[in-house]
Task: structure prediction
Amino acid sequence: MIARLRGTVLEAYPNRLVVDAHGVGYEVYVPLSTFDRLHAAEGLAVDLRTHLHIRENAHTLYGFATEEE
Result:
């Protein structure tokens, strides 16, 4: 399980980020509240709480700015 992700934003879109963590680019889906709270932009350092959703045909990583989200 991936519980937390810290790194630099490589790509920023309102519903997803690509975060570089030690050379690996993680695609992370984020709610608009997280995107707005972080003022997400390329080059920004982020620290996200995460939830990895595993399905039969996909692994999807969700990121949140706070535990409450």
